[in-house]
Amino acid sequence: MPNYKETYLTPKTELIKRIKDFQSMMQTEDLDGALISQSADIVYFCGTYQDLHLYIPAAGKPVIMIRRNIDRFRTDSKLDDYPVIKLRKFSEIIRNIKEHDLPVPKRLGLELDVIPASVYLKYKQLFAGADLIDCSSLIRRQRAIKSDYEIARTKETAKMMDNIFNALPSIIKPGKSEFELAGDIEKIARREGHQGLIKTRGFNAEFYFGQLLSGPNSAMSSYFDGPINGIGLYPEFPFGPGEKIIEREEPVLFDYVGAKHGYIVDITRTFAIGEAPDMIDNAYKVAEEIQQVILAKALPCMPAGHLYDLAFEQAQKHGLTDYFMGAPYPVSFVGHGVGLELNELPVLAKGVNTPLEAGMIMAIEPKFVFPGIGGVGLENTFVMSNTGLKKLCSFPDQTIIRL
Amino acid sequence: MPNYKETYLTPKTELIKRIKDFQSMMQTEDLDGALISQSADIVYFCGTYQDLHLYIPAAGKPVIMIRRNIDRFRTDSKLDDYPVIKLRKFSEIIRNIKEHDLPVPKRLGLELDVIPASVYLKYKQLFAGADLIDCSSLIRRQRAIKSDYEIARTKETAKMMDNIFNALPSIIKPGKSEFELAGDIEKIARREGHQGLIKTRGFNAEFYFGQLLSGPNSAMSSYFDGPINGIGLYPEFPFGPGEKIIEREEPVLFDYVGAKHGYIVDITRTFAIGEAPDMIDNAYKVAEEIQQVILAKALPCMPAGHLYDLAFEQAQKHGLTDYFMGAPYPVSFVGHGVGLELNELPVLAKGVNTPLEAGMIMAIEPKFVFPGIGGVGLENTFVMSNTGLKKLCSFPDQTIIRL
């Protein structure tokens, strides 16, 4: 059977540490165990995804119950210390837990934010009498702090995004449509090893690569919880690049999400062929200033919401609050964690007290939207160290790039 | 604000008919109303997606409650006879129902197969005492029968897939990797107006374009409920094309999903540069024969499972049952409905008694998998008419295409 290169597999020590750290969190929260099945969480704990239930007891060895392809799991995951068994029927889960000398949980963690209601109702019947408790908040808190391995993987994604962005100036041409240009760029991305799929946690959070928008389209919002969403090709998927032809003297916003070996980097630049309108130019300078202020001040222990406040204050100083982070439907954050999913913790939103910590990887995206005219902004992905934020991409962000 | 062309909007009569038909089904099932929020179902009833709750009472006017972008809904949906209001808080849903002179439902339909458990628990509190009943099976049954409008849209997607497949023979070259070639093809697809995103109903049903696989990789299965899934680029997304270099004298399986204006067409062809191994060649002929037998016999009123039986009998006749529809993890179906989602009804699976009906659009995909050697097959998307199945794509399928 074909196989991945050894270096593509997440090391066993890494996976075991993730499981043990999660067990400690469960003990603190008095959970007896957690039954995990969402694909990003499975990738986090197992290093790969298969259709499986991972039962992690608060203490002792996890049990891995696979619905479909047990062989692929054995070749693609280094998690070989734990029992890996075939799950024929959903109802066998409890028997499998018992057979591996683990107590049947009375307080069971489930990913209540993502598992469907119908599945929840089956668990409820199966674990009759047990308290079913959301454990996604624990997993998401743990996943917010990246290991050295995860940071190294994310740096590979950042390198890929640099390569993609370096190709942009030569392919952005007036007279091309947004979606045509998007196809050109996505081809480069795929050649660089982009996985295509971008995982976004939650219901209906449908996402495809990101935004490549020009002029008024770069001021459009839609269903997605971000400042700028684009018009899209048609009403059935009202998101991302549309049919508009890119012209001179207008902002061309390029907000693309990179994903390689699972790990995400989010980056935005604003281009202009010729001069951008003054309003766009000025707002871009404020976005840069916001990034500088945040870079100068962000440190571990600072509440995540403080970065939003810093950004908002700068916008206020320049009289731009009406356009800050979207208009007329602004979002209340200036950034977000990224990792195996696009929308990880921390959320850099107003009022969020979660302290920043070393190891967090965050996209910070000060943006301004002028309805009918265009959107403009800057986004970089940073890793928090003990001494502050470090930028992961090296593509320049000093100014609007004039082609 | 930028806008779509008028012809891109789903006609009002179409949308109103969909809602009225669903109301009739709810009356038969004794539901008082349904609260709908999943993106594909919203696109079906509204012609576009926004973050909203659509309350459809069993009788009377629906209420559309929008969380975010009410302006986009007004421009992108023709549903302007019904109240469209801003939903500030989840808890306002009941008040909004009452304010529009509708009774608070005692038997409420919810999309239990897709809404997250945490959202279900909020509904349970909000509609205290009401029976919360899965209405996805009703919606999916209704959506299985396509209107003339939907068939016309799907034909546009089929035309797009013909254009993409016509480009293939000139770009499939030995020495190229699967993922590189995938990038080339996806660029063509995007230029043809492919929306990128492929909606697949259900938890963890992550999908990206499809399969472009060669030799042993075309025999790989993974987490996805399909006969052939590919190796993928790395364990974190073990699906689709991988790093393998395409060689001469091996099968190159190309199973891609087209999506345009929301509507999906699924098509598979097997190529070979030079001669394919005999085993592959022979199995391909059986796949063709299966398609012919199904085409000759399929008629409205026939149980969906009968098409699987017909396919299986042919496989049996040629001694190929061990390889039929995947090995060693075969799926139990030979086809599936397609529409706004890839995995619609009917499922052409063993034992399914659902009668086939005129208006159903189905992908039929007889495939054979020889582990370690390769996979081979043929897939077309058909619409059922009163006189039988009609193929939607015109790209030839007579034989393995030799380049």
Automatic annotation (TrEMBL), chains A, B:
<dbReference type="InterPro" id="IPR000994">
    <property type="entry name" value="Pept_M24"/>
</dbReference>
<dbReference type="InterPro" id="IPR029149">
    <property type="entry name" value="Creatin/AminoP/Spt16_N"/>
</dbReference>
<dbReference type="InterPro" id="IPR050659">
    <property type="entry name" value="Peptidase_M24B"/>
</dbReference>
<dbReference type="InterPro" id="IPR000587">
    <property type="entry name" value="Creatinase_N"/>
</dbReference>
<dbReference type="Pfam" id="PF01321">
    <property type="entry name" value="Creatinase_N"/>
</dbReference>
<feature type="domain" description="Peptidase M24">
    <location>
        <begin position="154"/>
        <end position="384"/>
    </location>
</feature>
<dbReference type="InterPro" id="IPR036005">
    <property type="entry name" value="Creatinase/aminopeptidase-like"/>
</dbReference>
<dbReference type="Pfam" id="PF00557">
    <property type="entry name" value="Peptidase_M24"/>
</dbReference>
<keyword id="KW-0645">Protease</keyword>
<keyword id="KW-0378">Hydrolase</keyword>
<feature type="domain" description="Creatinase N-terminal">
    <location>
        <begin position="18"/>
        <end position="145"/>
    </location>
</feature>
<keyword id="KW-0031">Aminopeptidase</keyword>
<protein>
    <submittedName>
        <fullName>Xaa-Pro aminopeptidase</fullName>
    </submittedName>
</protein>
<dbReference type="GO" id="GO:0004177">
    <property type="term" value="F:aminopeptidase activity"/>
</dbReference>
